[in-house]
Structures are given as structure tokens and as C-alpha cells.
């Protein structure tokens, strides 16, 4: 019996099911890798209760990560919502100590429904402590601009410049996602310090894209765990997430979900 690739997501739980840990585990399953999770916070914004975000204590997060490392082992991991400086710091320490090489950092800051996923004062810590450990980082346009302190990229050329600048923060690869680019196809830029690869797909006209970013980075993580190159992993993940957006789910109440199992419809 061959070994199944083992993947860990260190991220927030999105109770409504489209994003965060829920998106990651659904995506891992579609790629037939063994999914594990360390939940950093619960995001459950709603109109009935006053509080909607519940951060896990550091001891709980540490324990969850160590449980995956100790009982199963990790071929690739991704980070999503880390929320606070202290969670970022401790997560970075454990990742470094674990010597896991396939580290995907999705620097999530604000959810599609407006939830704050990273405290303002934690951006610097994310840049200094976590980005240098990453094989690949996957910011969207807003996140790239925020980290660099520049205006939001508006053209593919702006995106290329931002990718080059983010590379200097220490990751091996930078993937900037142009899903929110106006007047252009959904083009993403992958930069490795020398070559710029453009990945283009049609722009799907839908508002139901919650979880798209999580799904994309989870798919990259799964492909890396299988031993694929970063370029191949990103190409396959892009195709997977495009299909998931094409078949997005509307629940008739605002922004709906990326459909993580949509690739099965292609047969
Ligand atoms: O889509 C970004 C995201 C990531 N992680 C969690 C989320 C969201 C969006 O709502 O809730 C936990």
C-alpha cells in the first residue's frame, strides 16, 4: 500500500462552510490527500449573537499542530486565518522546528463577507516571521497592496511589480491572484525570483465566490504534498478553483459558496 500524501491546514473555522478549514478539508478530499486541521479561531458571524469570532487559546493551537505532526506526519501545510500576532509567532516557530518544506502561506486579511481575519497590528509580524518560511505565498490584490503599502494593483503590469517586491520578503514563490482585477480576465502571476508565469482563466460573472482563495491555496498544498513542482501545482489548482467558481452555490441569501466538488461534473 502506498503512502497517502498528508496535509495540514492551520486556519480558522468558517462555520457557514464555504471558506477556512471547511473549504480546505473539502478540497483536500477532492485531491485524495489525507487532511488534518489546527483551528486558530471560529468565525461564526450572524445576526442573533453579539460575538461571532472566537479565538482559540495558544495552548489549543499548539496541541492541534503537534498532534498532526506526531501521529501522522505532514508532507505539506497551509496557513490561513491566523488573526493575532501571538498566533503567527508561535505558528512560525513550530513550522520552523517541524522542518516541513512545503509551506503555503495564504495571507488572509478580510473575508468575502467582511470578517476581519487578521488584526491590523499583526500584518508586520506575518511579513517578518512567516513569509520567509513559505515555499509560496498566495495574496490577492488587496493583501499584496496592504503588505507593500502601495495602491491596489489595477493592471497585470502592476501585479508583476508587486510580485517582484513581495519576493524580497523571503518566500520562494509569490502567487498574486487577479480575481478582483477590473476589465481583465482572471489572471494570476507566479514569480520565483527570475521567471514570471502568467495564469489566465475566464472571468466568471458571479458574486458567489466565498472560499475561492482558501480553495485555491488548499489545492496547491495538496498538489505539493504529492511531490509536484510549484508550477504544476499552481496550474492544476487554478483549473480546480476556476471550475469551483463556475459552479458556485447560491443559497439565496447574499454571497454564496465556491463549489468544492465541481470538478467531478467534468467527468
Ligand atoms: O475566505 C477567507 C476566509 C478564511 N478563513 C476563514 C473565513 C474566511 C472568510 O470568511 O471565515 C475562517
From TrEMBL:
UniProt record similarity statement: Belongs to the ThiD family.
Catalytic activity field: pyridoxal + ATP = pyridoxal 5'-phosphate + ADP + H(+)
Alphabetized GO MF terms: hydroxymethylpyrimidine kinase activity; phosphomethylpyrimidine kinase activity
Listed SUPFAM superfamilies: Ribokinase-like
Enzyme Commission no: 2.7.1.35
Every Pyridoxamine kinase/Phosphomethylpyrimidine kinase domain range: 15-257
Protein name according to UniProt: pyridoxal kinase
Keywords, alphabetical: ATP-binding, Kinase, Magnesium, Metal-binding, Nucleotide-binding, Transferase
Broad class of enzyme this protein falls into: transferase
PANTHER family: PHOSPHOMETHYLPYRIMIDINE KINASE (PTHR20858), PYRIDOXINE KINASE (PTHR20858:SF19)
A Pfam entry, by short name: Phos_pyr_kin
CDD domains reported for this sequence: HMPP_kinase
Organism: Halobacillus kuroshimensis
Amino acid at each position: 500500500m502506498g503512502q497517502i500524501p498528508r496535509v495540514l491546514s492551520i486556519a480558522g473555522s468558517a462555520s457557514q462552510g464555504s471558506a477556512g478549514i471547511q473549504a480546505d478539508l473539502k478540497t483536500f478530499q477532492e485531491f485524495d490527500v489525507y487532511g488534518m486541521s489546527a483551528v486558530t479561531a471560529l468565525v461564526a458571524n450572524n445576526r442573533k449573537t453579539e460575538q461571532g469570532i472566537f479565538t482559540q487559546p495558544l495552548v489549543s493551537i499548539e496541541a492541534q499542530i503537534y498532534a498532526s505532526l506526531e501521529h501522522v506526519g505532514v508532507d505539506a501545510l497551509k496557513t490561513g486565518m491566523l488573526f493575532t500576532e501571538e498566533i503567527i509567532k508561535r505558528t512560525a516557530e513550530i513550522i520552523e522546528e517541524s522542518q516541513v518544506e512545503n509551506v503555503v502561506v495564504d495571507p488572509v486579511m478580510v473575508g468575502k463577507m467582511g470578517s476581519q481575519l487578521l488584526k491590523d497590528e499583526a500584518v508586520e509580524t506575518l511579513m517578518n516571521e512567516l513569509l520567509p518560511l513559505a515555499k509560496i505565498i498566495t495574496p490577492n490584490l488587496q493583501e499584496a497592496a496592504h503588505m507593500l503599502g502601495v495602491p491596489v494593483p489595477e493592471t497585470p503590469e502592476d501585479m508583476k511589480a508587486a510580485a517582484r517586491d513581495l519576493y524580497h520578503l523571503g518566500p520562494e514563490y509569490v502567487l498574486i491572484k487577479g480575481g478582483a482585477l477590473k476589465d481583465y480576465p482572471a489572471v494570476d502571476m507566479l514569480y520565483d525570483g527570475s521567471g514570471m508565469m502568467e495564469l489566465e482563466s475566464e472571468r466568471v460573472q458571479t458574486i458567489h465566490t466565498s472560499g475561492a482563495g482558501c480553495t485555491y491555496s488548499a489545492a496547491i498544498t495538496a498538489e505539493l504534498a504529492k511531490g509536484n513542482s510549484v508550477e504544476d501545482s499552481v496550474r492544476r489548482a487554478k483549473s480546480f478553483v476556476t471550475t469551483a467558481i463556475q459552479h458556485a452555490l447560491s443559497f439565496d441569501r447574499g454571497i454564496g459558496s465556491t463549489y468544492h466538488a465541481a470538478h467531478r461534473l467534468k467527468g
